[in-house]
Amino acid sequence: MKITTLVSYIFLITVVLSGNVSAQDLPNGAIAQININDGPVNAIAYSRPTNQLAVAAGKNINIYDASTYKKLTLFIGHTDSVLALAFSPNGKLLVSGGSDKTVRLWETETGKLRRTREEHTAPVNTVAFSLNGKKFWSGSSKDDTIRSWFPRDGGRMSSRITSRTDVTFITIASSNKGETVARVFNGKPIRCIIEISGNHWDVVSGHTDSVNILTLYEGGKTFATGSMDKTIQLWNIADRDKPLYTFIGHTDAITAVDFSMNGKMLASGSADNTVRLWDVAAGQHLHTFTGHTGEIGAVTFLGDKSLSGTAFAKDEALVSGCSDGKVIIWDLDKVVPTD
Questions:
Q1: Which of 22, 100, 172, 174 pairs as cysteine with 80 (C-beta 3.0–4.6 A)?
Q2: What are phi and psi of 231, to 5 degrees?
Q3: Of the candidates 279, 284, 294, which has an alpha carbon nearest to the alpha carbon of residue 328?
Q4: How high does pLDDT run on average in the chain?
Q5: Phi-psi bin for 88: left (phi > 0), alpha (psi -120 to 50), beta?
Q6: Which of 176, 259, 187 is closest to 223 using CA atoms?
């Protein structure tokens, strides 16, 4: 596999490329700030091969150069909020899902909308590409379906995986064995079901309120749940009796979580307007980023998801977006070691 080198100066830029904010006005620890006026930021994706950021704000998708933070293009087509984004491994395609119940496939270089599919009957809250880029998945928590698609023709390959109607959250991740599916049932007790290659793990959550966000790592063997109870729980399916750690510190509901590429850190966003970093191995709080003025809608480490868990995996920046349409890029080297 050819490993491309991430442009090093991406993390040295200290000016704001959009909006009326000067470098001196940047929040502590920030590299840059992008002000988007299209609506709340609900999803962010990063492509290493093309060094681009995709930001879903309201109904639109903004594409930025991840070195200069200059807007490259704008994808317009969704008729309601965009909730999920994922680049293909080579960065040439972007899939999006939205509250308009559609799945859309875009060409990143031209901005052309290649295909729109309307099979889902409820908002599409999760999308993911396979590691070889030959297919992608879309999932809807409200209609309890996960569908697989071929990027070439947009045709549906498979659909419903369960007939349960009490699913409250679905997320999908890709691994070398295929897709990993996580489903959350916010009943009593709260349960998280992880499905990997036909194997199921049923975990009884320790949260005291609804789980509204879940992120997967290492093909689903490790995952983190964020809850309305203001806590994050870290789990390993090898030990499902209790969480490895419970992260406490946020003062409002957890709204976003993401693992770093090497799995050593977890980032979380909250309705308390802050972004926090956690040490996964030690179960400790590392740093709190402040500067947002609204609920955090997305947090994403700048790194290649396909390199997760490898010796090449490294993160030097974290991107967060919030309900006021502001995106902030944070310099991790300023607050924590990233080797």
A1: 100
A2: -120, 160
A3: 294
A4: 84
A5: beta
A6: 259
In this structure, are residues 134 and 150 in contact, taking their beta carbons and an 8 Å threshold? yes
The two three-digit tokens of residue 19, written as one number: 């909006």
DSSP category for residue 239: B
CB-count exposure of residue 257 (10 Å: 0-12, 13-18, 19+): buried
Extract the tokens encoding 125: 């809250």
Q: Tens digits of per-residue pLDDT, 62-98?
A: 999 988 899 999 999 999 999 999 999 999 999 999 9
Lookup: tokens for 335: 């607050």
- Encode pLDDT of 121-179 as tens digits: 999 999 999 888 888 999 998 888 888 888 776 555 555 455 455 678 888 887 666 78
DSSP letters along 73-122, please?
EEE---SS-EEEEEE-TTSSEEEEEETTS-EEEEETTT--EEEEE---SS
With tokens 């999006």, the residue in question is 96
Indicate the pLDDT class of residue 218, thresholds 50, 70 and 90. confident
Is the Cβ–Cβ distance between 34 and 311 less than 8 Å? Answer: no
The tens digit of pLDDT for each residue in 16-62 reads 444 444 455 899 999 999 999 889 999 999 998 999 999 999 999 99
- Between CA 176 and CA 63 the distance in angstroms is 28
Closest alpha carbon to 109 in 54, 156, 167, 170: 54
Distance (Å) of CA 267 to CA 14, 117, 238, 254, 290: 22, 32, 23, 11, 13
Q: Do β-strands 222-227 and 231-236 pair in parallel, antiparallel, or remain unpaired?
A: antiparallel
- Residue 337: burial class (beta carbons within 10 Å; 0-12, 13-18, 19+): exposed
